[in-house]
Amino acid sequence: MTTISYPTFIRRPNEYVSGIWGWLTTVDHKKIGTMYGVTAFLWFIVGGIEALLIRLQLAQPEGTILSPEVYNQVFTMHGTTMIFLVVMPLSAAFFNWIVPLQIGARDVAFPRLNAFSFWAFLFGGILLNLSWLTGDAPNAGWFAYAPNTEPQFNPRNGVTYWILGLQILGIASLAAGFNFLTTIINMRAPGMSFMKMPVFIWMTAVVNVLIVLAFPIITVALIQLQFDRLYGTHFFNPTMGGDPVMWQHMFWLFGHPEVYILILPAMGIVSEVLPTFSRKPIYGYSFIVFSGVAIGFLGWFVWSHHMFTVGLGPAANAAFSVSTMAIAIPTGVKIFNWIGTLWGGSIKINTALLFSVAFIGMFVIGGLSGVTHASPPSDAQQQDTYYVVAHFHYVLFGGSLLGLWSGVYYWWPKFTGRFLNEKLGLWHFGIVFFAFNLTFFPMHWLGLDGMPRRVATYPEGMGWDISNLVSTIGSLMLGVGVLVFLYNVVYSNLRMPKTASNDPWDGRTLEWSIPSPPPHYNFDVIPDVKYRDDFWYKKYPELAHNTHGGGSDLESQEDHDADHADIHMPDPSYYPLFLGLGLAVMLGGFIPFTGHWVVCAVGLIIFIWSFLGWSYEPVNG
Amino acid sequence: MSNVATTEDHYTSTGVDNRKLMMWIFLGSDCLFFGAFISTYLVYRNRSLTGPYPNEILDIPITTVSTFVLLMSSLAMVMGLSYIQQGRQVLGRYWTLATALLGMVFLGFQVYEFSHFAHIGLTPRTNIFGTTFFTMTGFHGAHVTFGVLWLLIFAYSRLATSFKNKMLIVASFISVVVAMAGLMMTETLDVIPHMPFSIAMAVTAIGIIGTITSLYLLKSPDTQPEIVSKEEGNLELAGLYWHFVDIVWIVIFTVVYLVSAKDGAPLL
Amino acid sequence: MITKKLIKYLSLSSLLAIFISSCSPHHEQSTFTNAGPVAQAQSELFYLMFWIAGIIFVLVQGALIFALLNFRRKEHPIPGSDFKLPDIPPKQVHGNTKLEILWTIIPALILVAIAVPTVQTIYSTYEPPEGSDPLEIVAMGHQWWWEFRYPDEGIVTANELRVPTNRPVKVTLQSQDVIHSFWIPQVAGKKDTVPGNTNQMWFQVDEPGNYSGQCAEFCGVAHARMRFRVIAEDEADFNVWLNAMKTPPKTTSSEGYGLFLAHCSMCHSIDSYMNESYEKEITVQDDRWADWFHNQEESVRVSAPNLTHLGIRTMLAAGQKDMTRENLIAWIKDPSDIKQGTRMQSVATVYQGGVAKLKEHEVEAIADYLLSQIPDGWGSVSTSTESLEQAEVMVWNTPEEHGEYLFVNQGCSGCHSLNEDEVIVGPSMYGLIDRSDSKVEGLSAEEYIYQSITYPNEYIVDGYAANVMPQIFINLSEEELNALVSYLKTIK
After folding, report:
1. How far apart are alpha carbons A505 and A410 in whole angstroms?
2. B window 161-220, beta carbon within 8 A of A
3. Which residue of A has its CA nearest to B122?
4. Could you tell me which of C134, C193, C125 has the C-alpha nearest to residue A379?
5. What is the ipTM of this complex?
6. DSSP collapsed to 3 states, C142-192
7. CA neighbours closer than 13 Å in the CB half-sphere of residue C59
8. Nearest C-alpha of chain B: how many angstroms from A177?
9. What is the per-residue pLDDT across A104-146, written as a single tens digit (0 to 9) for each?
10. Which of A178, A187, A201, A206 is nearest to B24 (CA)?
11. Which residue does chain A place closest to B25, by CA atoms?
């Protein structure tokens, strides 16, 4: 590019390196997606073990498996892990794999930034969980309400680990958010206007807008809490004029959009699975898209429904109650349109479809119970009880996780070229579906029967014993269901042949037009897009008349050179790994253990070194 | 900053460069970052239980000067980008350097302000005003610092090719730091205490002479115009960031020094 | 095949849940049993939404399952492939705008039908009905117990809230430490106690009885153990209690009294039946709290439940156990065994973080003393099977002898050692006379010691904190105070 030569600290690996270095230095969105998926699943097992510990402790009244302090650590880490280390990165795995493939791009806009997001996520998760080794795991809940997290009440380091771990995960999410928004806005294949994008891409876009706008708020709140804890400021210290309710406002102003960050990707996946297996276009595309956008928008005006009992006054409660109920409308529209998609279709019933249908069913339950605590007087009885626990598990497990599993079964052939075993898949689905309801349905009763959340134990004779025991049995069965899935993955990868064709499900979107698994440059030729569900109409041109979203005629593709030897992908790089590592070490160095400033300085050096190296690195080594 | 690997170097759906688009998205995100700090400051107005209160401590004239300096740096940024687009290296380099050096002067004002407040008893631990004031302006200062480093590294690596000119850029940076350090040694500013007046003046003089000399010697061009104008896109990114940070300061200046400057003890 | 399973699982799990919920024994905290108008209004709103939701649930799940069963693919194998496809794709329907508008508007109308009564109920449950004469109480959340104050009556009590039936109770909610939430499920929904803010709620109980309450906001280690009990009585019984709470107990002194003063009185008040004791208790409680909050490492006191007339309470340790002698002894010996994390054990010197450093008979004496705290004339309740011993009438030969007795029995010896340089909590009394006349200008040694007993905060010895010594010894008689001073002068 210029005649000036810049210092390169480490040369980029020249070729498409294989083996462990191939993974450590990769900037390929597909490999990064795989790493996200695998890592998130490992954290899922950790979070699941924490869930089982909670359930075992609560199986009987006056349980003694965990001390109250350890119980608090376990439930805090269960929530934090499942939200930040499981559902978000699992969604990110799908963003990574699917977004470039569905919009007809060869990679994301910033491949190295993408790799950095992954490494920051990995090291952030490790830092968060390192707290277990010091015996000081975070113990104040994933919501970390001040002043229970202020140094006077929580002098040990657990919450500081939590703050800095989340700070790193936030940076990872923000970087990914910038990246995917740029990718979706700027790198769509020619002809793919916004209203021709697949619904999954739309939902990804909404999620990343939410990430980009919501995470700065929690970043600031965490900075404030960290300064209170470590440097003696008074943001949330009521004895100096600070207001603990301010923390709640900032946390939920982030926290409620976060809820949609968790659910919208699954909604996007379901919106891809249902049309494919019904062999019908998604019903009411523009309504599904705009209701998703509306959910993302309205999600900013409802945060105080987490605070109905805080005492904001009747006017605020009434206003937030009405805005919360309003969100039920676009959500309902989505559900009706999904049923409309199935209606009159030619439905192929398999694991992927069953997970999607179960997603709808369970999400409806979670949504309906959600309306009952959108009403503040009713919520006064439900807030902070197991009823709420039941509600959000129906939305986040019954919703997000089932949706994500549907995506796993749906896109697995595209990821690997192999199918997941269908018989094991049905067992997996059956056990998980049954056990999920067995675990969480009784919690509705428990909550309405007056059992508060976050209690390390409960007395005998309250009428809560049997429901809790049933719930515990259900959770153990859930564990079995997850093991079946794990076995299916291992079994399928070892035993199932690579039989997946380009288009095993008779799919509709661009990812099915290329080989399974795709070559590292994805598309030999960047496709020209004429229609929504373009690939489907290329296969069935006779169905293309009278379609919505049809575009003007574009020039044909024959001009393109199909010789992929000319396709030049960016070389791998070491710097994303080191930048992520430097960030985590540097921020971890703020945790006040002995000699922590040395660690912080080492992290800073790694960070600056890899930042400069990154900046001066040429495209190809 | 350079060579951000994109698989599609030319074609984008919107016609906007990927990096520029991402910078806009980042700035949108950063709005929420500062928005959160500024909202906290506003919510916590008049909640300090002990002094010093804003009306006892804020010095509006001095901050008006520093605000003016920062605004001038934005003007310099515009000039710099304009000359770089025309391929006029020397002027483009002068204005870009001026942007960074004015940013440094702004930071010097902030260092003085923080140290002055600490001398008269306001730290982040003193009261809720100190807590919110220092964190908000401190994180703004951190943004300015990052911008200054970005511009200096950009000038060093992209707007100078010869070893001599690169060193002169470094020298101008060091000289400005020295000049400001000299001023901070005086008893009036008292940031660096216990220095005789003569030493303070000498250090300041060395700094000023160094700045003038190094900038004067930078008058010779050393890069081809067409190469210089290729840097336009890179400088524009820095420019977007720089203007944004300026705008944030205008909001902070309005909120802190104009709106809340008369806040005293809470009326209980 | 699969779908049949699906239906089977669905019905099975819901049947199970109904079965489970119907065969549980007691439901002390059930939100379905409404004992007052507030809970009633909240329940009605819930039932309204529940039935609407139930109908929507049936319709939506019905449509979903019907679609799944009815539109299954009729497959034909494709030669040379493992996969089967129908010959013809179904009709490619893209949507129907009228239908979309319909299913946007209908849910919106349903939500309006919910929102209107919601907003009405928000306002109707916010303030007590106009024209009623509510009883005003203050509920303070503490880690991990409840303090209840009756400002109009000048009564402070803990963990057991007595209210009259059929009269609104207006609760002012506060907290000194972290956020808690005040919740009596059968009576009213919860509201948080937020430090620095003051919240309001109200409730009314229709029938006399005991109602279980619990902290609902996560507040730290012993969150699960932060319970309380509401005892609703009809107006006459309630007034009897009000008067009783302002009556002195039958016995004021026993062997346990001195031990109580020595080991417990720094944090627990026990004499709030006296006039003006309400204001004093609130000030002292704030001092105790501030003392701990600002210097946790060294503070030997923290705000703690008021124990006045403990003998008529029904539960101990924030609703954890019935108030029996055995339970009280167990609680005093090792509070963590009943409520892990309690500050009683980590703050009070007598525990030093472990079990009580007391002899068996001393613990029993304290328990007996506490259980004997029953207002004079409180007839019907007898909680302790032990007969309460009356203090013997004693005769003293010298003031010093009398002083020595008081030194032990008023609890001085709990904090002040007689050995040289030994510090228990306060300074050692060894050689007191030699250093007393030079402490405060213008006071002789005797005057200084006298003042230090009656007004301990007037002069604080270097290295010791103010407000640690209880300011209760001014209540001793002149003769007793002089006896103490005489005795203290002899310690060398």
Report:
1. 8
2. 161
3. A233
4. C125
5. 0.92
6. ECCEEEEEECCCCEEEECEEEEECCCCEEEEEEECCCCEEEEECCCEEEEE
7. 12
8. 9
9. 999 999 999 999 999 999 999 999 999 999 988 999 999 999 8
10. A178
11. A178
